[in-house]
Amino acid sequence: MSARHYAGIVRSGRARLALLVAASIAACVMATPLLEAQSAPPAAASPEFEVASIKLNANSGLPPLNVVSKTIMRRSAARARDGRYIQQGIAATTLSALIQAAYQVTDFQIAGAPSWVSSERYDVDARAPGATTFEEMRPMLQTLLAKRFQLTFRRETRELPVYELVAARNGLKITPMKPGSCVPMEQAKPLEPLNICGGIRRQMGGVVAPERKDVIEAVGVPMATLIDFLIDETGRIVIDKSGFDDVFSFRLEFASSVNTGLGNVDTPASGLSIFTAVEEQLGLRLRSTTGPVDVLIIDRVERPSPN
Question: What's the predicted TM-score (pTM) here?
Answer without folding.
Answer: 0.73
